[in-house]
Amino acid sequence: MTNLLMNRLSVVFALCAMMFIVSCDKDEPTIDPGDGLNLSDGLYLQMGENDPSSLTRLKSENVSADDFMTQERTGYTAGSMYLEAGDYKLVEVVAKEIVSTKGGAMETFMDESSSCDHNTYFVVSTDDNGAAFSIPDAGLYRVAHDQQRSEITFHKIVDASILGDATEGGWGADTPLTGSVSSDGGSWSAEGVILRSGQWKIRYNCRWVIDRRDDPNKPLNDASNGYEIFTNFGGTISELVPGGSNIVQDEDGEYTITVSWDPRDGWSVDVERTGDAPVINFNPNDYRMAVIGDATNGADIDGDGTPDGWQSDRNLFHAEASGTHYWRGVVTFRSEGEWKLRANDDWNFNLGGELPTLTPGASNLVTPGEGAYYIVLSTADEGDTWNVTVEPMGWGLIGEGSPAMGWNDGQDVPLVAQGNVEGTSTYTYTGDFTTGGWKFRAAGSWDHNIGGDLSFLTTDGSNIELAAAGTYTVTLSFNGETYSATVE
Predict the structure, then answer these.
(1) Are the C-beta atoms of residues 228 and 216 closer than 8 Å to each other?
(2) CATH architecture, domain 42-156
(3) Per-residue pLDDT tens over the stretch 312-363
(4) For the chain, domain boundaries
(5) How many CB atoms lie within 10 A of CB 199?
(6) Are the CB atoms for 183 and 82 separated by under 8 Å?
(7) Could you tell me the fold of the domain covering 284-391?
């Protein structure tokens, strides 16, 4: 009985103690752990007087680097987000509180390097506690904030496409995807897309980047000169990365391609195989031809004081006409050395011997002499016979907006070959340009011409146009794989 009474008294005492503790705290302020913004530290877009949303957060991303690589940039953040029309500010959240706001005047810019549609974008030069800026139209935007330049860039995403040597259009023509997007997400897709072994990427609004450099002739690795915003996605099918490496396609087939954007999960791509690719007896993708040799490349890769051209291919570009396959390109040769043609960056298939008919596995070819040459490799019998021509003619300018002042044959203005530096060949010309269209073409012929986006020129690309007439220096660059140009 005594033990039972003691146990009961202990319970009563404990309950009284608990009541005492609670009654003592009842006048103290209650701290709700949910007080403040339920957001991680970082930068957000804030619309009007609404609280900023996790859907408008800007996160660290890479920017474009030289040789189509990526690089980090201090103070650079970006994201894809759906914005309603209205007034916005950029706010910084720390410990669930807004600690700073930025605003400023908005300007409209034209992407002069691209002749594609949807080539305008907006830039806000920000100030602390600056005025709100207005987004004119609702839509999905690519938003980037650069702390070093104190600016926010807005580019509305309208179209999506894929392109690459795995597609039927190659790197020179987009395969368009159709669709739409809302604040809940969206997608763009295409059925019956033929993909073959190769590589491809996704891009929107028909462009690779938005160039925010002060001087487009300076290297991208010069951070003080500005930066380029990626408008393309690569990496892998399971993980898309802005500006990522080419997506590798292993299996030939017919596919349905769907590129999706989700406000929480971001970008993704679904590649569904729906059938077999048409059978072809001769697949040019099996013969990605290039020129290689110490006669073609001035780069000293191993530092021994001599060119190492046998380690650096100079790609030729494929086209087909009336059943004949052609590979064309302009190559800058040195005054001495040897060269060959080979496929797919290896020696499993290579051509040499004596011009004009080449033989698989034959001896090296001798340099034709110092300068730029137009090379055309062809086969009219699906690889049984290979012929090559080497003409002492290089790149020229043509078009009403160029110093040629017209599109007629014979009006081409030749570019001057500057040689090779660290694996990049350059060709230049200085003259008077107008706002009319112009292009680059080789050997005074339309068989091999390039245009479109200056940062990634494509074969048969669209005309190039400048915003203002004047005297410009045009520099065409070829890194062995792709062409780009600057206009200063």
Answers:
(1) no
(2) Sandwich (2.60)
(3) 889 999 988 888 999 999 999 989 899 999 999 999 999 999 999 999 999 9
(4) 42-156, 160-275, 284-391, 395-487
(5) 15
(6) yes
(7) Immunoglobulin-like (2.60.40)
